[in-house]
Design a protein that fits this description.
By secondary structure, this protein is an alpha/beta fold. The chain has two domains: about 1-255 and about 460-484, Aldehyde Dehydrogenase, Chain A, domain 1 (3-Layer(aba) Sandwich); about 255-440, Aldehyde Dehydrogenase, Chain A, domain 2, CATH 3.40.309. About 40% of the residues lie in helices and about 20% in strands. The chain has helices at about 40-50, 55-60, 60-75, 80-90, 95-120, 155-170, 185-195, 215-220, 230-240, 265-280, 300-310, 330-345, 385, 400-410, 425-430, 465-475, and strands spanning about 1-5, 5-10, 10-15, 15-20, 30-35, 125, 135-140, 145-150, 170-175, 200-205, 225-230, 250, 255-260, 290-295, 350-355, 375, 395-400, 415-420, 440, 460, 475-484. The strands form five sheets. It has a seven-stranded mixed beta sheet with strand order 15-16-17-14-13-18-19, with helices on both faces. The chain has a six-stranded mixed beta sheet with strand order 10-9-8-11-12-20, sandwiched between helices. A three-stranded mixed beta sheet has the order 1-5-4, with no helix packed on it.
Amino acid sequence: MKLIQNYIDGRFVPGKQEFDDVNPADGKVIARVTEAAEVQVNEAVAAARCALRGEWGRIGIRERAARLQRIADAIEKRFDCFVQAEVADTGKPVSLAAKLDVPRAAANFRVFADLVKMSGVEAFQTETSDGTGALNYAVRKPLGVVGVITPWNLPLLLLTWKVAPALACGNAVVVKPSEETPATATLLAEAMQDAGIPKGIYNVVHGFGPGSAGEFLTRHPDVNAITFTGESKTGAAIMKAVAPTVKPVSFELGGKNAAIVFADCNFEETINGISDAVFLNTGQVCLCAERVYIERKIFGAFVEALKQQAESLYAGWPNDAETNLGPLISAQHREKVLSYYRLAQEEGATVVTGGGIPKFGDDRDNGFYVQPTIYTGLPEAARCGKEEIFGPVCHIAPFDSEEEAVALANDTKYGLAASIWTGNLKRGHRVAQQMSVGITWVNCWFLRDLRTPFGGVGLSGIGREGGMHSLNFYSELNNICVKL
């Protein structure tokens, strides 16, 4: 049985006890994971702080950038290992891990390696009363030790999205990956060693939230900032934990995202785009669309076409190249999704397709699969229309006017993402700018430029990451004023 250990100060070390790492495709235990005790979290933070006083704190921006490029090289060298580790932990199709998760992980390091070399800071000539003037300029300094807490849906992608800019800015990190998906954060430690990252700069502690590694990390007084992606309620708990030390936080939380489809859209492209937006990664993406609003004149045709798309998805074994639908992450999460499937019917929904558990006749029946599901007919106030489900499911409702569509889409406590589908580009711009979200796509979904701001409003998060926004979060700007 494979043993996944903590990584502290350049060494793999055991924890206080072990827990199971389960393959969601068949429910089998694939590894044992060592849970970090509080003393080990303390050791990781101390190692990170000590490492900042060593080589990492002395090298310049160009050398840091060069080492980030070497991390990307090391990921690509181990490409198949990362893909298989991600597939085994999440159950996602190998085609998705190989196309999205691992390439984006390497790209994150390359983008921020380039960006940190190009980033500028303010400088002003200041007039003074005596006429001699002054010069004000800023310098960028690392925050120190950054606690990185990542989710299970895109484990490597979202981990590197945070670690790459944190290291680019000269910080050290202590990573707490999800207990459901521990493998790639640990494998990344080997890439760090290959790339010449000094010991103590990258540390991994495994465990859970309350009373475990997550809580120990967030309330540690020597952690200078916390970055977190995950559930909104967990983000609220982290805010409470960090309040006494007033440390900065960056949160990308949940979403109950809307898609608005106008009758003048390119029908085939929109069906394909909405199918991805609802069912990609079995709906386990914070950006997925769970509320789909269709202009009434194409409502019936759209529902039927999306039904066909859902029913054509193939829930094969994850390593089958033809598989495009995987399991949910765990038995517990499947029960949560199924509880919403039952609730939707209690609230009066019409089941267009799905709503249950598929049967395979092999070991996949011991995994955590659910059927892709589409509902219509729910009232807007229904819980299934307001609460994030995080599964392969959407509710489709008609609208009659642009104003109504905007109002329906914005009627949520979340505000992460939206997508607009129309052949009228003027309307696309107009409606997109009215969305109360952090990112709006027009005639596409999940298309990202890593230089642009990313984050949410309301229950969907605090702050922005991406491009200069990441560099600004992971560093302190120190203003220096020189009298001339």
